[in-house]
Amino acid sequence: MASTLKDVAMLAGVHSSTVSRVLRGKENIPVSEETRQRILEAVRQLNYRPDKTARALRMRKSDAVGLVIPNIASPYFSGIAKELDILCHNAGYSLMIYDTNENQEKEIVVIEDLLSRGVDGFVIAPVQDADSHIRQLVEQNIPLVLIDRDFETMETHAVICDDEMSAYKAVSYLSDLGHKRIGFVSGRQNLYPVLKRLDGYRKGLNDFNLEKDTAFIASGGPTLESGYASTVNLLSLPNKPTALLVSGTIITVGALKAIQEKGLSIPEDVSIISYTDTIYAPFLSTPITTISHSVKEIAEKAFELLHQEIKTPTKGDVAKVIVQTHLYKRASTAPAH
Amino acid sequence: MASTLKDVAMLAGVHSSTVSRVLRGKENIPVSEETRQRILEAVRQLNYRPDKTARALRMRKSDAVGLVIPNIASPYFSGIAKELDILCHNAGYSLMIYDTNENQEKEIVVIEDLLSRGVDGFVIAPVQDADSHIRQLVEQNIPLVLIDRDFETMETHAVICDDEMSAYKAVSYLSDLGHKRIGFVSGRQNLYPVLKRLDGYRKGLNDFNLEKDTAFIASGGPTLESGYASTVNLLSLPNKPTALLVSGTIITVGALKAIQEKGLSIPEDVSIISYTDTIYAPFLSTPITTISHSVKEIAEKAFELLHQEIKTPTKGDVAKVIVQTHLYKRASTAPAH
DNA sequence: CTGTTAGCGCCTTCAC
DNA sequence: GTGAAGGCGCTAACAG
Known about the structure:
Two copies of one chain form a homodimer. Chain A folds into three domains: 5-50, lambda repressor-like DNA-binding domains (434 Repressor (Amino-terminal Domain)); 63-161 and 295-325, 3-Layer(aba) Sandwich (Rossmann fold), CATH 3.40.50.2300; 163-292, Response regulator (Rossmann fold), CATH 3.40.50.2300. Chain A has helices spanning 5-12, 16-23, 33-46, 52-59, 75-90, 104-116, 132-139, 163-176, 192-207, 224-235, 249-261, 295-311; strands at residues 64-69, 94-99, 121-124, 144-147, 157-161, 182-186, 217-219, 243-247, 271-275, 289-292, 320-323, 326-328. Chain A contains twelve helices and twelve strands. The first copy, chain A, is an alpha/beta fold. Chains A and B meet through helix 4, helix 5, strand 2, helix 6 and helix 11 of A and helix 4, helix 5, strand 2, helix 6 and helix 11 of B. The first copy, chain A, binds a DNA duplex through residues 4-6, 14-18, 20-21, 24, 29-32, 35, 50-51, 53-60.
């Protein structure tokens, strides 16, 4: 059994409230140097550690923030988790990382759990099958920053990527290489980044006079199998694309597998640009051209907004921060034949 | 402000203790069907959710378990985190994932934090620069399972891999291919798996009569740079190894980078076997021979042990579970020239 | 300067 | 069957 304030107080011969005062050492609170030392000594002897559960109950705050992400096994989200964790830790918060497994029900449960554990704020990459539970957080003025996936009509802070522009640039680059038929492979189409990338993709097709065909757009679930199936479909078209814009790490692996099994080669038969964050990108059989995110920058902006919001709530004055991505040109993109 | 038991009691016209009884619905507790319904209705109306902070304070248990890992951005640990999260969630626990960043001080802080938040148990992959804080957990009979990294002399449950045997088999395989000089590249050498793999490696060198040279063993920190530097060193030896056994995902990327920059090719100039869990392994420029872990199996065994321990503490009766790894032979290993 | 008092929201024992 | 009382460990307001 861990020792309590009372135990320390007993040993030091004072009242527990005095111990409490000393321990949280507000500068302006008067307490004699002598008793202070006596208390500190008792704390040491008993190896006292404050009970954060009790503190949280009493204070209505927990010095904890909840990170809610759809897939901790994704290098993108785990990268954000890592960076955010470091920032939180340095600022004296604990970061509680929860995985929703891209499942809306679980997200709702998880947010309620975090709420009932009294976290001071949230960073959420929402599943986006529903939004009312997020809306509730906003209405209750609970500090919240969305990352990667925004609900545009909602008054929340958000840190998102330049998805529309990055897709547009990718298409532009492929167009410069002479590609006329570009496929779009992605996971779930209700996700904000996918939607935005689609916008950029379509805009690109338009502006550069490329072939438009709804069959060139293949979206599925967030799985390797889905990426595989989508790519197989695209590459089985009589009039198949000569280049692919692929969203997501695991989708990309599915796409690579499909291409390999079809006996096609990159970039001779098909060029590829991928949204992925794998450190293996340069070492793939064909080093792959990627659009990459700075997870550190995303984490930093998100933390900054959240921290500010926790300290001094900004009533409805909301920031939508856009983080620039970067196109790393590697060997998976080549002129169309 | 969220509603409390009292609010519900008010609305239902009963006392809060009655509400509490109904809500935790122990079958054998008598309560009239009528008031029960009235209470349930009030709960619905107020959208009441129990406060887990208060509950944890009162009950001395939180229905939460803490996962403490050295690097959430590693596919190995994030894979374990994901699987464990699913298991915990299904069993009604919340999983709090904490990253120690391979830093001993932070690990200590983080465990104390989790402790003071009243978690019911721990799953820990320890940093292993120190062990007294872990020993304390054991002494206080706090449910605990170590994963990946064991303290052999400590009476704790542990789920570890067959590191010695897997390294031995890797050496055996390389020996069969005719390699006489095999290098060993890894991260920190105080880690249990690294130590065990070294044991297996040395045993292999012995049994198969391979060249022994302490210069063939290059261990460093847990970074890409370290893996890079170690590999550069090995491959600069006058009498350099023709094969490398590499531990760790990020170390492997460093090694690949070094080989590439040296202008060497795999497997012509150097064969490689890697302990890594990247899904990209089959798609690398040379698909890499890997020793892979079943993160799912590790998570399952760990959860089983922990769950059991939380429900009915087994005084000192401790299990060390060994999970088999698998050697996936790919193109990065070839006969020595 | 320090002690007393009164809860935070919940659960458990003991009454009735 | 249900209510009242007490307390988990902590902090804040008020005394003195």
